[in-house]
Design brief:
Helix content: 55-70%
Strand order of the largest sheet: 2-1-3-5-4
Largest sheet: 5 strands, mixed
Structural class: mainly alpha
Number of strands: 5
Radius of gyration: 27 Å
Length: 543
Amino acid sequence: MEKRHGDVLLVGLLVAATIGVQIALRARIDRPLWYDELWRPHFAGEPWPTFWSELTAANTPSSVGSLALTRLTGTILGWHSWSLRLVGAGIWLPLLATGGFLLARRFTGRVPAVAATVTTALAGTVVDTGTQLKPYVLDAVVTLAVVALWTGQATLPRRTAAGALALLSLPAVFLLVPLAGYDLVRAVPRRTVVRTAGRVGPALLLTGTHMMIFVAHQSSQRASHFWDDHFLAGRGILGGLRFTLEQTGAILGGVPPGIDRYDPNLVHSLLEGHRLPTLLVGTATAVALALGVRVLRRRPDGMILIVALVGAELLQLAASAGRYWPFGACRTNLFLVPLLTIIVAVGVADLARTAQTARLVGPARLPAAVGLIALAVMPVCAVGGTVTLWDERHDPRPIEAMVDATIAARAEYRAGDLVIVGGRLARAGWLYAMDLSDDASSGEPPVGPRVPRSATTFLSVIGKDGADGADSAIRSRPQPPNRILLFILAYDLRGTAAELASLRQAGWCEQEIRTFPLTGTLHGLTRCAPTPRGDSRSPSAVR
C-alpha cells in the first residue's frame, strides 16, 4: 500500500511538472498556427460533402481518430490556435508522463522510472511537438496504452481495445502486427492457435480496415521527396545497409533515444550538434539497451515490450522501402521513444545494481562509471531543450501570418473580384485561414465576409508562362473580374516579378502591396493599359 501511495505521489508531481511547463509556455501555445499545423485543421474541418475527395490532397496521412478529435475541438471550442493545441498540451503530454511512469514502474524502480519519464515527457523536442497541432505525442500515448493492454491478461476485450486504439494513432499498426504475431507463435506449442487467432483477429481487422480504406486514401504524398533521407527505397544492398546503420546510430544517439534529430523547426537536446558527447551517450545507450533487453527477456511481459519495439522498427524499415513510412530518428517515430527510454532505464538500473553488488575495482570500474554518468546526464540534456523552447517562445515560425493575410484579403475583397493564391504549399493553409479560422488579427480593421471558394483560384507555380499562370486563370473565368487580389507564398516569392510582368502585359497593374513576414505578399491589381511584351517597366515608370 505504501508503495502504491508513493507511486501515486510521483505521478502527481510529474503531471504537475508537465502542466507547469505548458503554463510557462502559454505564449507559444497562443501563437498563430504555422505551416506544418495549418493544413491539418483544413482537412479535419472540411465540409462533409467534399471531405472525402479533399482528403486525397493531405500533406501526410492522418488517423480517423486524430482528425475527428481536431474537428470536435474546433466545433466545440472554436477554430483558434490555442484551442486546437489545447488537447495535445493539456491532455496528451500529462497522459504521456502518467503512462510512461506507470509502465516503466512495472519493470524497474522508482528512480529509473522517474528519470525515464522526465527524459521523455519533459524533453524539449517532445514538449515542442506536444504544444503544436500534431499527432505525435498522441501516438506515443497510444503506444503506452497498447503495450499496457497487451501485457495484461490475454482476453478478447483487451486485444480488441488495443486494435481500436489504432483508429487514434496511425503508427499503432507497427505495434499490433508484431504483437499479434508473437501471440500466435507462442500459441503453436500450446496448440491454441485457433483460439489465439480469434482473440487477435478483431484487433488486426480494425487496424487493417483503417489502413486500407482511410489511410491508403491519403497516400498520394508517397511521390513527394520530403522524406527521401529516411526512405530505404532506391538505395541498393550496400546503400541500404549503410542507411540502416546510420539511422540506427541516430536513434541511439538521440536524447531521449529515438527522438527527432533532423527537423530544423523543432528544438533539440543540449547535446545535439556536439559529436563527441553524442557519441558517448549513444554508446552508453546502446549498452544500456542491450542490458535492458537481457533483463526483460526473462519476463513474459518484458518480452512483449521487446517484441513491440523491435517489431515496429523492422516494419518501419520495410515500409520505408516502399516509401510508405520514414525510418530513423524523425518526428513521425516519436511513438517509439517511450519504449526505447523504458528499456534503457531498465538497463541502467541493472548496470548500477551490478556495479554496486559486484563492487567493481580498477579498470572494470571506469567503463561502468562513464556509462552511468553519460546516462545520468540524459534527463538534464533532454529537459534543457525546454529552456531553449522558453527562450524562443515568442519567435515567429514560417507561414504563421496566413490568418492575417486572409483577413486582409477579406477586407479588400468585393463581389466580382478574383483572389489568386500562388504557391505549391499554399492551398490548405489558405483554405483553413479563410474558411474556418476564428482567430482575429491584431491591428486589423473589422473583418469582412469570407471570400467564397468560387472566387478563388490556386496556382501551384508562380512566374511560369502559359496555362499555369495567373493570366490564364483570369481568362478562364466566365466573367472578367473587376479586380485581382494576388497572394504569393513566401516560399515562391522568386517568381513574383515574372508573374506581375505577365499580368501587366495582360492589362493588370499593381496598385498596392502588403507584406506578411515569413508568410507572403498580397498584391492588389486593377485594370490598366497592357504593357508591350518585353517592357518590364511599371505603368508609373512609363508615365
